[in-house]
Amino acid sequence: MFIQHTIGLFTDPAREWEKIRDHYKSTGSIPIGHVLILAAIPAVSGYIGTTQVGWRIGVGDPIKITGDSAISIAVIYYLALLIGVYTIGWMIHLLGKAYDLEKPLPLSIALAAYTATPLFLIGVMQVYPVLWLNMLIGLPALAYTVYLLYSGLPTLMEIPTERGFLYASAVLAVGLVALVSLLAMTALLWGMGLQPVFTY
């Protein structure tokens, strides 16, 4: 089912958001499979890219990370993505109360999970960690993620577009705060001895 939703978000997002809403309203389930599978894409790709391909700074040999170090980072990365999606979903649910909405939590988590789909898919680029190329392809994926948020929130929450715009803007702000928090956590983990170990 989630593969159909994923494809639909790229071919006909307006119609697919309606299908997602109807599915999660009727079943009351949480999109666990979608997140578990797609969050593995950037984690596995990052592992391969940092251990097998490496990246260059100027001229010289590529810089790589040891397999043991990379697997630890990949596992933490994967868990951070899972926690991030479900936390954002929970925040969407809590923000809904400020807009006098009492929508079920699974619907809010579905919004967070399916909105993040382009970012999960573009994670495959981490197999080839070249900064300019990742930015060139990653920025359109980020823009499409924002578009999905603004187009999907009014549909899933069944509110007018004008109210949905304000609600989506609040969710976007929460997402940015979560990103900054993740970067701060990364710095803390590095300081606690979980920094990457490079091969020479």
Task: Note down, in words, how this protein is organized.
The chain is mainly α and about 200 residues long. The chain is about 80% helix and about 0% strand. It has one domain. The protein is built from nine helices and two strands. Strands 1-2 form a two-stranded antiparallel ribbon. The longest helix has about 35 residues.
Structure summarized in a few sentences:
The chain is mainly α.
Content of β-strand? under 5%
Q: Give the overall shape, derived from the CA principal axes.
A: elongated
Q: What is the number of strand segments?
A: 2
Rg, alpha carbons: 18 Å
Domain module count? 1
Walk across the major sheet and give the strand order: 1-2
Reading the helices and strands in chain order gives HHHHEHHHHHE
Q: Give the quaternary arrangement of the chains.
A: single chain
Largest sheet: 2 strands, antiparallel
Q: How much helicity do the residues have?
A: over 70%
Residue-averaged pLDDT: 89
Structural class: mainly alpha
Distance between the termini: 45 Å
If helices are DSSP runs of H or I spanning 4 or more residues, what is the number of helices? 9
Poorly predicted sequence stretches spanning 5 or more consecutive residues? none
